[in-house]
Design a protein that fits this description.
Elements lengths: L2 E6 L2 H10 L1 E8 L2 E8 L2 E7 L4 H13 L5 E10 L9 E9 L22 E2 L2 H14 L5 E8 L7 H11 L3 E3 L2 H10 L4 E9 L5 H27 L2
Parallel strand pairs: 1-4, 1-5, 5-10, 6-8, 8-9
Antiparallel strand pairs: 2-3, 3-4, 5-9, 6-7, 6-10
Helix pairs in contact: 1-6, 2-5, 3-6
The structure holds adenine.
C-alpha cells in the first residue's frame, strides 16, 4: 500500500485532515509536527511545513528520509494569475517553477537554476488525471484549472508585480512553497501534485480578499483531498 505525504504550509490548511485521521502518531522533527496515521484506510503523513520555499523543501526531504513516502501532495491556497481563474477555484499543477530564481546576470534565463538539468518540475500525470476526475465529482460547478504554478518567497499583492509574473512565466497561480516541494520531489524521484484553491487575485486587493476567502478556499481543498486519498487506495 502507498504511503502519502501531505504538506500544507499553514495549520488552517491541514487541520481538518489531521482531525479525520486515525491511529495517529506525532513526531516533531526540525520544528515541524509530523502526523503519521490513516485516513479511509490509507497510510498518511500530514505536516505543516511553515511558509516559504526552504520550509517546503526541508519538509519534503524529511517525508522521504524518515517516513519513506511514495508520493507528496502539497495543498493550500494561492493567488490567481489569470482572469478566468476565480476566487475559490482549484488549480492542479501541471508543473511548477520558482519565479524568484534570477541568475540572469550570469547568463541564465529568469527562473532557471544554474547547473540544474531542470528548473521546471512536472507533476505526476496520473495524480493530475485522478484529481481532475475527483474534482468533477465532488466539487461540481467549481472552476478547476490545470496549469503551471509559480512559487517564490513573496506574497504577491501588487498589480505590476503580478503583470510581470504573468508575462515572465505564464503561470496559473502563485504561492510560496509548491515549486520548492516539487524540486525536492524531483531530486528524490518522487511523484508529486500541488493542489491549490484560489484565495485572492495576487493584485492590490490580495490582502483583503485573502482574509475573506481563505476559509472557503481551504474547505474546497479538504473535500477534494479526502476523496482523492480514497481513490489512491483503490
Ligand atoms: N498565497 C495565497 N495568495 C498568495 C499570493 N497572492 N502570493 C503568494 N502566496 C499566496
Amino acid at each position: 500500500m502507498k504511503k502519502i505525504g501531505i504538506i500544507g504550509a499553514m495549520e488552517e490548511e491541514i487541520k481538518r485532515i489531521k482531525e479525520l485521521m486515525e491511529d495517529v502518531n506525532i513526531k516533531s522533527i526540525a520544528s515541524m509536527d509530523f502526523y503519521e496515521g490513516r485516513l479511509e484506510g490509507v497510510a498518511l503523513v500530514v505536516v505543516r511545513s511553515g511558509i516559504g520555499k526552504v520550509n517546503g523543501a526541508l519538509c519534503t526531504q524529511i517525508l522521504v528520509d524518515r517516513y519513506g513516502v511514495d508520493l507528496v501532495i502539497n495543498t493550500g491556497v494561492a493567488g490567481s494569475l489569470r482572469n478566468e481563474i476565480d476566487i475559490a477555484d482549484i488549480v492542479l499543477s501541471t508543473d511548477a517553477l520558482q519565479h524568484d530564481v534570477d541568475a540572469t546576470g550570469f547568463g541564465y534565463e529568469l527562473g532557471v537554476i544554474p547547473r540544474m538539468e531542470q528548473s521546471i518540475f512536472e507533476a505526476d500525470p496520473e495524480l493530475i488525471t485522478l484529481a481532475k476526475s475527483v474534482c468533477k465529482r465532488v466539487l461540481p460547478g467549481l472552476g478547476v484549472h490545470t496549469g503551471r504554478i509559480v512559487s517564490g518567497d513573496q506574497f504577491i499583492s501588487d498589480a505590476n508585480k503580478k503583470e510581470w509574473l504573468v508575462k515572465s512565466f505564464n503561470g496559473y497561480c502563485t504561492e510560496m512553497e509548491g515549486a520548492a516541494i516539487a524540486q525536492a520531489a524531483y531530486l528524490n524521484k518522487l511523484p508529486f501534485l500541488i493542489i491549490r484553491a484560489i484565495s485572492d487575485k495576487a493584485d492590490n486587493s490580495a490582502e483583503m480578499a485573502y482574509s475573506e476567502f481563505e476559509a472557503i478556499a481551504i474547505d474546497n481543498t479538504v473535500l477534494l483531498l479526502k476523496e482523492l486519498i480514497k481513490e489512491l487506495n483503490k
